């Protein structure tokens, strides 16, 4: 029986058919509200803010603290994809979402915690009172010494290079369209890139994918990277759909040739090359044209690239 995932508070509220689509709208959204239902009518009512009598609450929560992507899943098939091919994955099943969140807070890195919409607390300073006896030859006295200690997070953290990518196509889908791609590593970073999309067609999707490829080409091969993109299409191409396309010899379920497969396959090759060198490749969806500094910067570079000769 199919499930319907209703997002009442998220990046784009609505009803989604898979948990991964639901998570894309809720991961990193502070105060996200979402539930799964067996009825589309109930799901639509919940997404619209109406009260719904019975919700199909998931019985199990799979917490993935180290994976691609990280997060909390209610479907093991989705959770298993997040840990496949990951060196040293960390995951566990729980009966409540609160336990799953606590697990990721304990074993996940800062990005994994923030992706849940959870606040990462700074190091806590506290004072402990330690009693040390000090004696003289006359009368023993107690001297109280105050020692300042710092609680340190001693968990090993993965060294991750964050990169933001974006694509832009002026007059996308029309004759004379001009597309460009942008890759942003940081403010005034010499690796930042604005490039005109080569070849045809000059579409936004091809520009988004090529931006990912360029990011992987520029970053040191053994370096673990996290690519931030506002293109769910591009992310799903290389993290979810590619396996099925490979099995079908790069044909879709309807028997059509997969579009943009030249760039998709190039990105997959770069991911595999990085994995063999000891690095991981993560992808993080971000809301486009919002307040994310990296996404805004990558978008500007992409527009600049589209305007290049």
Automatic annotation (TrEMBL):
Species per Swiss-Prot/TrEMBL record: Hypocrea jecorina (strain QM6a)
Biological-process GO terms, alphabetical: DNA replication, removal of RNA primer
Keyword line: Endonuclease, Hydrolase, Magnesium, Metal-binding, Nuclease
Record-annotated RNase H type-1 domain positions: 157-307
Family annotation (InterPro entries): Ribosomal_bL9/RNase_H1_N, RNase_H, RNase_H1_euk, RNase_H1_N, RNase_H1_N_sf, RNaseH-like_sf, RNaseH_domain, RNaseH_sf
The protein, known as: Ribonuclease H
EC number, as in UniProt: 3.1.26.4
Annotated GO MF terms: magnesium ion binding; nucleic acid binding; RNA-DNA hybrid ribonuclease activity
Its job: Endonuclease that specifically degrades the RNA of RNA-DNA hybrids.
PANTHER family assigned: RIBONUCLEASE H1
Top-level taxon of the source organism: Eukaryota
Cofactor: Mg(2+)
Reaction equation(s) it catalyzes: Endonucleolytic cleavage to 5'-phosphomonoester
Recorded family membership: Belongs to the RNase H family.
Pfam (any one): Cauli_VI
PROSITE patterns: RNASE_H_1
């Amino acid at each position: 029986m199919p499930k319907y995932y209703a997002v009442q508070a998220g990046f784009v509220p609505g009803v989604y058919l898979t948990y991964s689509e639901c998570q894309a709208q809720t991961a990193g959204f502070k105060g996200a509200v979402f539930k799964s239902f067996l009825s589309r009518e109930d799901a639509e009512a919940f997404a619209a803010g109406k009260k719904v009598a019975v919700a199909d609450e998931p019985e199990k929560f799979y917490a993935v603290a180290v994976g691609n992507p990280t997060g909390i899943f209610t479907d093991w098939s989705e959770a298993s994809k997040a840990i496949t091919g990951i060196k040293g994955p960390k995951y566990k099943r729980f009966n409540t979402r609160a336990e799953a969140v606590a697990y990721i807070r304990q074993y996940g890195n800062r990005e994994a915690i923030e992706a849940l919409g959870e606040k990462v607390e700074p190091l806590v300073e506290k004072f402990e009172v330690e009693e040390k006896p000090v004696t003289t030859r006359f009368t023993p006295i107690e001297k109280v010494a105050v020692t300042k200690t710092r609680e340190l997070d001693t968990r090993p953290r993965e060294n991750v290079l964050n990169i933001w990518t974006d694509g832009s196509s002026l007059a996308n889908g029309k004759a004379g369209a001009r597309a460009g791609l942008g890759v942003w590593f940081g403010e005034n970073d010499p690796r930042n890139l604005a490039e005109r999309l080569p070849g045809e067609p000059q579409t936004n999707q091809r520009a988004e994918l090529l931006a990912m490829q360029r990011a992987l080409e520029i970053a040191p091969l053994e370096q673990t990277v996290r690519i931030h993109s506002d293109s769910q299409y591009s992310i799903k191409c290389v993290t979810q759909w590619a396996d099925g396309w490979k099995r079908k010899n790069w044909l879709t379920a309807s028997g059509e040739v997969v579009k943009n497969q030249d760039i998709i396959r190039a990105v997959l090759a770069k991911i595999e090359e990085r994995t063999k060198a000891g690095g991981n490749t993560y992808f993080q969806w971000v809301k486009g044209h919002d307040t994310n500094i990296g996404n805004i910067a990558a978008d500007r570079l992409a527009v600049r690239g589209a305007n290049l000769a």
